[in-house]
Amino acid sequence: METEMLLAPCGMNCSICSGILRTKPICVGCASEQPKPRSCEHCVIKRCAQDKPDGTCMTCPTMPCARLKRLDARYRSKYGMSMIGNLTFIREEGLPAWNEREFHKWQCPTCGNLLSAHKSTCLSCGETNPYYVIRKP
Ligand SMILES: [Zn+2]
Question: Which of 78, 93, 105, 111 is a plausible cystine mate for 125, CB 3.0–4.6 Å?
Fold first, then answer.
């Protein structure tokens, strides 16, 4: 069975966020009206995307803007994922295909739950997250 992924306006897959996957979730996804962590609550990209036709950066004529590029660069180097990559894939292949791709990418090979992009190990069983980039000191 596959899980429906939660897409944020910026292209983040909220379903693999540690704010959702932790034992006591502090968020239910960016698209929800529920309270969010401070950094997401005050997110400039989210506020900007509200005025776009579909409420995401996907339909913005300037996509990717400098802000999204900065966020994307941080996530590509640290967490092995790309917001711009997600949005581009959805635009070309559609949301169902993205859901499937993401589910297979982030499903923990050991326990079957989703890995958190923000954590080096699976929050459920401790398996290594192969996409997490550990910085050498
Ligand atoms: Zn696991």
Answer: 111
